[in-house]
Amino acid sequence: MNSDEFLAQIAEEVQVCKKCDLHFSRKHGVSGEGLTSAEIMFIGEGPGFHENQQGRPFVGAAGRFLDELLELVDMQRQQVFIGNVVKCRPPGNRDPRPEELAACDVFLERQIQAINPKVIVTLGRFSMERFIPHAKISEVHGKAMRIKGRLVVPMYHPAAALHQPSLRSSVEGDFNQLPDLIASAESAPELETNTPEEKPDPKQLSMF
Hints:
Layout: H1 3-16, E1 33-34, E2 40-44, H2 49-54, H3 61-72, E3 81-84, H4 98-115, E4 119-123, H5 125-131, H6 137-140, E5 145-147, E6 150-155, H7 158-163, H8 168-176, H9 178-183
Parallel strand pairs: 2-3, 2-4, 4-6
Antiparallel strand pairs: 1-3, 5-6
Helix pairs in contact: 1-4
């Protein structure tokens, strides 16, 4: 089974998944989309209203801003893969709960293995927490580090800049330096992380 077929299978499983209560409010599961052999994978928080309606990630206001950010570095979403840590919309766009994050993590891990990206860009705290537990996004955003051989670059969620305009320059600045961070990937520090058995349960966090 090639990566396209494997990711298609994951997407089918997401549509009928009942591992957590998010399936009760699901119109469409949002597995993710993009180049299945992408070198860069963006991972956000979860679907919002428009994503739940269309079954695609980042199609609302935050998605339009993400497209603008990609254009800053001469990229298009067709060149990357975009997904989320949870695949179904939390009701009212509330924060995803620990059990929901845990239920969806198997899908995300399989996607990462299938795509095998060189770079993972986390968008927001929930995504960052998966790779860099206990970090503060205000301190680590825009700083690249190697985790299990992959370059991970934490960034603010695009929605953060829409809700807090003072963050816009930080978000744009982080994206502008993404090509340089990728080019210097080998010199990025290796971060020691917990093993899966030691990894603490996900905590309630704000995307900001």
